[in-house]
């Protein structure tokens, strides 16, 4: 019996060809997770970080990135950890269960450190844009990367600055007992003592506290030249206001947690010119500033708000992760992870490369003060 094959029209043949091509080369969906505190007292910092990732993803999708011969579409899976370690690990597990291709986050050391184990067990690369506690990258996980200098460098630099530049002889130290706050305060204290200062008081509070009158009254009696606070701006602002109410004239120092554009508002304007000295893990030299300034202008146009601190680093973290995928020809974490570990990339924040622990190589710090209610840069150090 003779087989019968229906004759297809040219249009039908074209449709079959297109359908076959699509089946052979479907769109590659790449899921990028982001975790930060987008609720609670530091939500403004968490949203800033999230928007940096969102901006990078928008640009990547508009560009039409090709990975391994397939056009990629990037999707953001955003999680809120509230700055709480338990919420942080729950968020990390949700992202792992969703089989994200990579994670940018978390915002804080206290959530990033326990979450790192979950990402490691799932084999998912994690790039932390703003985590400074040294322990984060010292857990031995090959999936862990950091975009900024750690507390050993940040706290140490501020401790030496207090003694050598501000000529402080007596210092009081307060921390909020979080992994971040306690870590940066300890490194500051160690460096200040080594430089010759006396630590007259070492106090602690919590990251949810708003009344520091008792602690500050005790500190006032010690007449410190400098008060260092290891914590975030949500507590640092009220602390500055209460220092003014108590007539404490000491300079106020802190790490990146207080070094935000929101600090004067949170302090109800109680930030005397030049009285606050803080440092941000990160920063660019003069030659890189036009690139970063353009990013800040584009960011404000896109979101209607100023960059807080670390959105340029979440933006770069997203871009460098995707660059590793492109170079590896795959978004499979197991395939692009070795490429990410050896990457050399030029971002809006400067050159990006990681050492054997996953820490940024030659990380920068930027020192700031406040004048006229606005943050003013003092200089970049490495």
TrEMBL record:
Signal peptide span: 1-23
InterPro entries registered for this protein in UniProt: Leu-bd, Leu_Ile_Val-bd, Peripla_BP_I
Q: Give the UniProt keywords, A-Z.
A: Amino-acid transport, Signal, Transport
Keyword presence, Transport: yes
Q: Does the keyword Transit peptide apply?
A: no
Q: Which SUPFAM superfamilies match?
A: Periplasmic binding protein-like I
Q: Which residues form the Leucine-binding protein domain?
A: 30-373
* Family of this protein: Belongs to the leucine-binding protein family.
Q: What is this protein called?
A: Branched chain amino acid ABC transporter substrate-binding protein
What is the scientific name of the source organism?
A: Rubrivivax gelatinosus
